[in-house]
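Checklist before submission:
- one chain only
- standard amino acids only
- sequence pasted in full

Submission:
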Amino acid sequence: MNSISPTAMVLAAGLGTRMRPMTLTKPKPLQTVGGQTMLDQALDKLVEAGIERAVVNTFYLAEQIEAHLSNRKDIEIIISREDELLDTGGGIAKVLHHFDGKPFFSLNADLPWIDGDEPSLSRMINKWNPEIMDVLLLLMRTDKARGFDSSKGDFALEQDGRAWRKNLPAPRPYVCIGAQILKPELFANPPAKAFSNNIVWNAAEEKGRLYGTEHLGTCYHVGTPEDWQAANELLKSGKGWNI
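Returned file contents:
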């Protein structure tokens, strides 16, 4: 853990438009999957990995998220409320000083996963090598990931762990499930106030410094009300997400 910042980023500012009408009155990170909010599931994983504090960005229905987070006592919460949507990269660049110049975790607050025998964040810490990596993504095989379009995918993964996607036609064998370790210097000169982490990933890939590690548990991309219902029904039935 010495090489990883004790502070992580949790991205919770999105509008959740595909989840409407559910998200008209409650933001997506506060929707429950398996009886727990997706936001709390992300924070629990950080606590388990030894992370001491989390910067959580808010925008849409921010007051609800901030009120909910006030109940967390096991991890320090730093709120970064955005006056305008800054996207994933812009949201991180705004709070870069909180990471004290160390590589840090960034997690999505709306993509739940269940670990395998070993927690994926611990596996990422063990795999992280700043000598060769600028970014380490948590990836899952597209054909095993629930709630994703199996005809698309995001990345390919080489045997040495390098991830890439440039000029790679679909279907791509791996999807990114919203957890990553990032070097802070990637955000030192942002291209705009609002920008996507895709820009950071592309730059790391060009240098051969974009890496990934495979998630060995299950996940469910809860993108629509139908996904939310299916994810919860499978957990309630005991079948889980690996069928």
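Reviewer check: The radius of gyration is 17 Å.
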